[in-house]
Amino acid sequence: MVKMPLGTEPSKEARMLEQLRKHQGSVLHPNYSAPFHSFEDTLHRLLPYHLYQGTANSSQDYQRVDDEFERVSCQLLKRTQAMLDKYRYLLFAESKQRLGPSAEMVMIDRMFIQEEKVALNQDRILAKERP
């Protein structure tokens, strides 16, 4: 600890460094045998661990994460494309195997015929009213 002459107060930076040293000391040499007495005691004893929970990431770490993300993304895109291709192939194969029209086509044809019948009836009524 740095000794200061009497009457002078340490600077803000010096107080912060001293506080960081205290926190570092409490993290390096924890009092794990004593139980927590209160919420404040718990807070004061555990909070310093958040200051020393890891080191800053380097650009190599970020590059490694980016490379891994790109690799996994490409793999997932290839899988998705393969699944879509297989789905399209199965639809195509199913359409070739059908001998008759599908249920959807039959329903669309019926709706079209019904609309045409209604339109024809309306035309007949108009033709009778206005010859």
Automatic annotation (TrEMBL):
InterPro entries: Chromatin_remod/trans_coact (IPR052438), GSCR1_dom (IPR015671). Residues 24-124 form the GLTSCR protein conserved domain. Coiled coil: none annotated. It comes from the Eukaryota. It holds the Pfam family GLTSCR1. PANTHER family: BRD4-INTERACTING CHROMATIN-REMODELING COMPLEX-ASSOCIATED PROTEIN, GLIOMA TUMOR SUPPRESSOR CANDIDATE REGION GENE 1. This is GLTSCR protein conserved domain-containing protein.
